[in-house]
Amino acid sequence: MRVIKKLAEMQAFADEQRCSKKKIGFVPTMGFLHEGHLSLVDQAKKKCEVVVVSIYVNPTQFALGEDLDRYPRDFKKDLELCEQRGVDIVFAPDNDVMYPSGFETTIHLNKTTSDLEGSSRPSHFDGVATIVTKLFNAVKPHIAFFGQKDFQQSLIVKRLAKNLNFDLKIEVCPIVREKHGLAMSSRNNYLSTGERSAALVLHKAIELAKEMVEQGKIDVAAIEKELNNFVAKEKLAKVEYIALRNRSNLNKIKVLKKGKTVLLLAVRIGKTRLIDNELL
Ligand code: PAF
């Protein structure tokens, strides 16, 4: 496994692979890798001859006062995990490589970014769209793999790739959960033992929503209200949003249509903000 830190070296590597007709699979990450990330690597290995993982904590997707400084990092362990899983290249640029002086370009999507995560974190998706564009231009992948856990992000990345004519495929892979249902996330590391069990309320709310669907409930406002009441019973939890949306464009809906709806949740457990979702 090779670690590349420089942009020109990454691009030259990508060009060589493309010239030799090798398919490049790309897994963009902010490090502190867990099984969720590694499942993307496994999927990339199944579909591509060369697998590149990027490890870069992108400052522009964190607003002032968010957790950029305390975002968990363990580069040495990340490298070990990548090596064990058969990654070929870890692209780990420094800030001055991704944002050299004179940098003044932002990629902004107008619609899909405007609510849900976009309301709670207004500048977040500009940062994500900008860095993902830059990473695609560095790694030149044939397929890029994203986790469904960041559902809105995956939709935005698909739109961005289409809108900007990127010659690549975006593959979205299923959420990986811990034993009792908590969706894997680097931010789970912030949770105390008590908070960890309180955090299970997200998954329990998803299970409750699935039961409601099985019972034939379709009134979106009523389902959202019942889920809000359910989560509110957990003392450590504070709901930011619980929303049922059209899964292909995140538009608001009044009636739940099976196979076309996504349930999205953002809940604070103590100081930690967690997100989860389920296709219904
Ligand atoms: O999902 C993430 O870890 C990040 O948002 C991404 C896609 C690596 C961009 O920094």
Automatic annotation (TrEMBL):
GO biological process, one term: pantothenate biosynthetic process
Protein name (Swiss-Prot/TrEMBL): pantoate--beta-alanine ligase (AMP-forming)
Gene3D superfamilies linked to this entry: HUPs, Pantoate-beta-alanine ligase, C-terminal domain
Cellular component GO terms, alphabetical: cytosol
Family from the record: Belongs to the pantothenate synthetase family.
Alphabetic keyword roster: ATP-binding, Ligase, Nucleotide-binding, Pantothenate biosynthesis
InterPro entries named among the record's database cross-references: Cyt_trans-like, Pantoate_ligase, Pantoate_ligase_C, Rossmann-like_a/b/a_fold
Organism: Candidatus Iainarchaeum sp
Enzymatic class: ligase
CDD domains (UniProt xref): PanC
SUPFAM superfamilies referenced in this protein's UniProt entry, alphabetically: Nucleotidylyl transferase
EC assignment: 6.3.2.1
The reaction(s) this protein catalyses: (R)-pantoate + beta-alanine + ATP = (R)-pantothenate + AMP + diphosphate + H(+)
UniProt superkingdom: Archaea
Annotated pathway: Cofactor biosynthesis; (R)-pantothenate biosynthesis; (R)-pantothenate from (R)-pantoate and beta-alanine: step 1/1
GO molecular function per UniProt: ATP binding; pantoate-beta-alanine ligase activity
HAMAP family registered for this protein in UniProt: PanC
